[in-house]
Amino acid sequence: MNRPADNDAPEGAPKNVQEQRLLETWRTPRGWRYWSAVNNTEVGLWYTVTSGCFFLFAGVLALLMRVQLATPGAEFLSADRYNQIFTMHGSVMMFLFAVPIFEAISILLLPQMMGARDLPFPRLSAYGYYSFLIGGVFVCGSLLFDAAPKGGWFMYPPMTTDYQPGIGADIWLLGLSFIEIASIAAAVELIVGVLKCRPPGMRINLIPLYGWYILVVAGMILFAFPPLIAGDILLEMERAFDWPFFDPSRGGDPLLWQHLFWIFGHPEVYIVFLPSVALMAMIVPTFARTPIVGYGWVVLAAVGTGFLSFGLWVHHMFTTGLPAVTLGVFSAASQAVAIPTGIQLFCFLATLLAGRVVGSVPLLFIFASLATFVFGGLTGVMVAVAPFDLQAHDTYFVVGHLHYVLVGGTIFPLIGGTYYYYPLVTAKQLSARLGKIAFWLLLVGFNITFLPMHWTGLLGMPRRVYTYPAGMGFETLNLISTVGAFVLASGFLVVLWDIVRPKGKEPYAPRNPWDAGTLEWLAEMPLKPWGIRSVPIIKSRDPLWDQKDLVHDIDEGRFYLPDAEEGLRETLVTSVIDARPEQCLRVPGPTFLPMISAAFTGGVFIFGTYHWWTPALLSGAGAVATILIWLWTGTARVPEKEAKNVGLGLELPIYISGPSSVGWWAMFITMLGDATAFISLVFGYFFYWTIHDDFPPETSAGPGVVWPVVGGVLMLLAYGMTIAAWRLNRADRSGAFYFTLATAALLTVGGAAALFAAPWSTGLDPTRHSYDAIVWLLVGWTVLHAMVGVLMQLYCLARRSAGHMTARHDADITNVTLYWHFLALTVALTVGVIAGFPLLS
Amino acid sequence: MDATPPNAVPNAKESDESLLAIFVSPAVWAAHFMACYITAAVWCEKFSGDSLSLAPVRVAFGVYTLLAVALIGVNGWFGYRRIRRTPGDHAYGADRAEDRHRFLGYVTTLLAGLSLVATLFVAAVALFVETCH
């Protein structure tokens, strides 16, 4: 095992011209321009701090609840205020802390672990961050105006339709939808980051386990969040425009919401849990002083959990009266997921047993996590048994269970991770003494708070009640929980103090302070803005332990991209399986465009909440315009030369298009998420068919056949011509390209108009029946996507005429064609469902 | 450890590998799961009538399960063959094409095993539940 050599140069001073240029290129902007930074180190830090603030906010809400519940019949909070607070506690913890903190930490650390200078789409990260910030402040702010949502973090209708006239539920639906988009943006960034931005030589069997987990979790976000976005659309359409998706008197059904919510909601639990397991997978080998035991088994566990977690959602709906066979199917999957979950924990234990364990604060939190999570996992297996769940459902037993899983599985590893990775962010170390004090306060406080809840629940105390009468046996247990909550909070205060206390006089942390083997610990102390001095060739899973002289050679600039001759920010793009260098990717530098686009996008959602349609539309136009400027000025730019020497005699292209390029992958991944949202809407259509004896109802004329088919044919023609235009561009047949693509755009507009005419001409009224509403919604979704398709076609026409797209430099039209593959599928399915299915049934 | 030429094993070229192969068995589990769930839900809601009999659904579960087990078996067998036929020790942690090849085979096999167990868990429901209620 090699300890990295200390850097001989004076702190922070560049050693040569190469270093000087690299420093200048990657320098963080100063003054007010600091906020234009898009580099992962800044955006990741803001993301982490912001989600940490939301965590503290939600934690204070929890304390308020515990004060209210400390004694029976208390009047500290009114019932209405309590409802707002418990709703916000759950919503903020899940949407504004648990998911964003994973994105934050990954944006911050993943490039370091991959020896990359940055992630491939820095502006997308910044856009996601500002969306998160704006949406989060909007949602949290509602509590100050007594206007917060109060339907629980799952927002079940009819509670959130018929019984909540205020704007609370709208704030939840629109504010959090906005944040869900930010999560999908982060997922795109992280998937492409893991697959395409690894250092040369880091084959798929050598990537740090964190990378595997991020790949799985980001993939889960892509398939889990879109059903919720689809549900949000349905619920908001019902609230804003009276489209009766969940109103049984007009053919709707509240259970549809529960399905869509929990198709998201259960994978969500693993979306927040797996990144913390990923932190464990990085921390455990370091302190066991040995590589992880069972790398392949941990990969199995990550991928297996990712898949199985999608088969559990109905276990949140065991008491809704579904057939026993359905309960059985979901109960079976709920039991099966315990297998991969257990495997990874056994691998960690085996690693600790195989190595020579060195005690540390991060490891203490890992132990706390293992014990707590296993306890929560076992009560999880209990509630996965349907008959037991019928008894425990909606009681404090479930509150106890979920907090053991979430705090044990997610929060404790995160605190351990904070102590572990703090030097990589500030170049200083946290106090081991304060860490140990915090550990005991948190572990003891947590168990005093949540262990009694299992008994409170078994005694019959329901969840989400603002108070309870005396004499039912709840008093002592609740009082103990409240005392524990304050002990727990004091532990968090100690951690907070350790993080924010001034450390100016403390020395910098030594380089690689924990003697870890993974690449991120190359970071120099004090930290340098370039991420890594030169991008190395990796030959091991623990390169700092196994590769002799690696650190020295990297510091001397002996690997790839040691310089920035053109003063442009560059990183390497490599192949998916073997990380073979494929491209020298130029990534953008500081810009305010993501912030402005996020503000405009936020306007659409925030003005929409208040039904201020004109400002909302103007904001939408502003967002489209800003994003177009961002694309036009910063993506797929024709470089000044075709290829560049990146070092070690390797010549790499600067511009590539198609499946090797990061842009193509981003489009593909985004469209997978988009297609999932669309499929969720189609699921809604067939859900109604399942529950109704007559669907489509006899009373509805339906959209007919002619107009949908005309619309479908025109759009499929446009699809064919878009592909033809892509080929013509490649063949450099300029005139034919313009003609074909312009015709395709016209055909798309015509097709969209014909599709719109279908429900309009037969007089379908979306407020009359859920059938009419779902047909209109499918048509609306397709027409909206067609309009985006037209915008893309026009964009490509403009790009070619301005000389930014050529026969050789065709990333724009290649990615647009990829979008159109998905659009064609959407069109075919929409027409098939709305026009074809009524003919069959 | 760098002495081995990168293409010492047939089919260990990067262009012959696919990351998607490891996801096949879990995807088959997912398809089997959804098929069972949808068949049961639609049958019980729309077609079971007053008898609430689950007999056709149980047969469907059996057919789906046979199909799924066969597909998972094939995928797992391909994975296992990669481990067995790749020369050298059974490790998969070195910087060699055959290690990467073996690793992908290893993960494919493990995921096939997990998917098999999870599929049989779901199929077992048909053995125990006799009616829609």
Describe this structure in words.
- The complex is a heterodimer of chains A (841) and B (133).
- By secondary structure, chain A is mainly alpha-helical.
- Chain A has 2 domains: 40-500, Cytochrome c oxidase-like, subunit I domain (Cytochrome C Oxidase, Chain A), CATH 1.20.210; 662-840, Four Helix Bundle (Hemerythrin (Met), subunit A), CATH 1.20.120.80.
- Chain A is 65% helix and 2% strand.
- Chain A is built from 24 helices and 4 strands.
- A two-stranded antiparallel ribbon of chain A has the order 1-2. Chain A has a two-stranded antiparallel ribbon with strand order 3-4.
- In chain A, a hairpin with a 6-residue loop joins β1 (570-574) and β2.
- In chain A, α3 runs antiparallel to α4 (122-141).
- Chain A starts with 16 loop residues before the first helix and ends with a helix.
- In chain A, 58% of the residues are buried.
- Mean pLDDT of chain A is 94; it is low at 1-9.
- Chain B is mainly α.
- Chain B has one domain.
- In chain B, 65% of the residues lie in helices and 0% in strands.
- Chain B contains 3 helices and no strands.
- Chain B has helices at 24-47, 55-85, 97-128.
- In chain B, α1 packs antiparallel against α2 (55-85), α1 (24-47) packs parallel to α3 (97-128) and α2 (55-85) runs antiparallel to α3.
- Chain B starts with 23 loop residues before the first helix and ends in a 5-residue tail after the last helix.
- Residues 1-8 of chain B have low confidence and may be disordered.
- At the A-B interface, α8 and α9 of A face α1 and α3 of B.
